[in-house]
C-alpha cells in the first residue's frame, strides 16, 4: 500500500512540475529513471515555496504558508511527513538521499523576501537571493544524483545564472503586480523611478539595467561552465544550459520586455539540453 501511495505522490509531483516548471521538467527527463521521481518531488516543493506571494492576498498569510512548509520540513526530518502529496514525496526523497535540512530551511527563509515590497538595494543582494533559491535547488538536485556536496560551487553559479535570467524574463509579470525585482540602486542610477518600471515602458535606462544584470548572469554561467561536472551529475545543472539562449533574446537590439516574448519552442530547449549532455558541460 505504501508503495502504491508513494507512486501516486510522485506522479502528482511530476504532473505539477510539467505544468509549472517545464525547464526543470525537461532536465529531469535526462536524469536516470530511478532519480526522476525524487527530482520531481524537489522541484514540486520549490514551486510550492516560490508561488507563495502570488497565492496569498497579504504578507501575513504568506508568512503562515511558509511557516507551514517550515513545520513540514521539521516533520520530515522527525520521520513524520504531513498528509500532503508534495510533503509525502519530499519526505521519501529526503529519507532516501539524506538531503541536508539546512538547504531547505535557507530556501524557505529566502522566500520570505518575496513577501516584502522593498526591492534589493544592490546587485549583491539580488545575487544572494538567486543563489539561495535556484542555487540551493540545484545543490539539492546534485545530491539526489549522487554528487554529494562536490558540486555545491558549480550549482551555486549555475543556479544564480538561471535565476537572474528568469527574473529578467519575468519583468513584465512582476511589473504588472507593482513588484520591483531590479536593484533599487541600479534603478536610481539609471534616472528611473519604480513607477517608470511599473508603467511597462521600455525606456533607455531600463534597457541598460537589463544589459547589466544579463552580464552578471553570463559571468555566473561562465563560472559554472568552467567547472568540471561529471556527466552523470549534469542533469542537476541542466536548466542553466538555457541561460545563453534566453539572454540573447532579452539583450537583443530593440527588444521590448513588455511586448516581446522570451519563450522558445520545446524542441529548442530540448536541443540545448541534449547539446549540453553531449558536450559534458552546460
Q: Give the terminus-to-terminus CA distance.
A: 40 Å
Mean pLDDT: 95
Helix content: 55-70%
Low-confidence stretches: none
Query: The CATH topology of the largest domain is what?
Result: Farnesyl Diphosphate Synthase
Number of helices: 15
Number of domains: 2
What structural class do you assign from the helix and strand content? mainly alpha
- Assigned CATH superfamily of the largest domain: Farnesyl Diphosphate Synthase
Give the biggest beta sheet: none
| Oligomer state of the chains in this structure | single chain
Total strands: the figure is 0
Under the CATH scheme, the architecture of the largest domain is Orthogonal Bundle
Measured by DSSP, the beta-strand proportion falls in under 5%
